[in-house]
Design a protein that fits this description.
It is a single chain. By secondary structure, this protein is mostly beta strands. It contains one helix and nine strands; from the N terminus they run αβββββββββ. The chain has one helix at 2-22; strands at 26-27, 34-43, 48-57, 65-72, 75-81, 86-94, 129-135, 138-144, 148-149.
Length: 155
């Protein structure tokens, strides 16, 4: 009996340690000073909206730091370098509002589709984003708070 208890205890401890190792740690400071972070919403054809997220640094990004992805608005996007100090990520918001048939007769509701719920990697508020980057080939995460929206002005 004692043997089974020991085996089960070791299994539970190993399982707990495995899940703790999988949790992504958020860094409290980014290794370089960020000048500003903001996003702009741009409307497109056929109810497709785009969100452009901009990250501006005071100095060019150090060579040992590489920006990989940004998580924002229940989506993730790859970051592109615009200039040496400005980086940009693009998110697409597709309007997926569909008509749902509601009727007392359940057979008439047969064609309704269940909503697709996406599970995000991070629990974020509307004005938060998480920046995934590599610092000396080690993947790290930095939480950006108080994101502001700037109105899009076309030239």
């Amino acid at each position: 009996m004692k043997k089974y208890f020991t085996i089960i205890s070791v299994f539970i401890i190993t399982l707990n340690l495995t899940f703790c190792a999988m949790k992504q740690e958020l860094e409290s400071e980014f290794p370089q000073e960020i000048k500003s972070v903001f996003y702009q919403k741009k409307s497109g054809p056929s109810s497709e909206n785009q969100i452009h997220l901009y990250i501006e640094f005071k100095k060019p990004l150090a060579q040992n730091i590489t920006l990989e992805k940004v998580y924002f608005s229940n989506q993730s996007a790859i970051i592109d370098e615009t200039t040496q100090t400005t980086f940009e990520a693009h998110f697409k918001e597709i309007n997926t509002t569909t008509d749902i048939i509601l009727d007392a007769d359940a057979e008439k509701e047969y064609g309704n589709k269940a909503p697709v719920l996406k599970k995000t990697n991070f629990d974020l508020k509307r004005d938060e984003a998480v920046l995934e980057y590599k610092n000396n080939d080690k993947t790290q995460y930095f939480k950006i708070t108080n994101l502001t929206e700037k109105k899009f002005t076309s030239n």
